């Protein structure tokens, strides 16, 4: 080949190299969105499992856990704010007052009585409901005592299931 050695290399097509095609960003977008959706879905599932759902069974399970904490730890019961989204409107104030006095009353119990309370169990059973109301049975078992059973009501307020004490 004669001519200018700095001209096109021998393997270049006449007229030079064609413009480079840009690689599509679509796989990254779809992959990123799919991954983003996967992460978002995982967060939603985690929140649902952590915070619980909003069905009547979920409200009963959350109430059961709070009642267990309150009974087995009478010197440090759950804060009243934890009951706010769980109790029907007419019960909230009564529970607040009860919890305020609980620590003082519990401080007067003997070590033996406190030990019995700490070994107590709370179980909820027989959840029955329709679209707007229902009932369930709460059973409190304390070692050496007859179990206490109480039927509680469930009501739907502002789209959420709430626990109410039977009249």
Automatic annotation (TrEMBL):
<feature type="compositionally biased region" description="Polar residues">
    <location>
        <begin position="100"/>
        <end position="109"/>
    </location>
</feature>
<feature type="transmembrane region" description="Helical">
    <location>
        <begin position="28"/>
        <end position="49"/>
    </location>
</feature>
<keyword id="KW-0472">Membrane</keyword>
<keyword id="KW-1133">Transmembrane helix</keyword>
<protein>
    <recommendedName>
        <fullName>DUF4878 domain-containing protein</fullName>
    </recommendedName>
</protein>
<keyword id="KW-0812">Transmembrane</keyword>
<feature type="region of interest" description="Disordered">
    <location>
        <begin position="98"/>
        <end position="147"/>
    </location>
</feature>
<feature type="region of interest" description="Disordered">
    <location>
        <begin position="1"/>
        <end position="21"/>
    </location>
</feature>
<feature type="compositionally biased region" description="Pro residues">
    <location>
        <begin position="7"/>
        <end position="17"/>
    </location>
</feature>
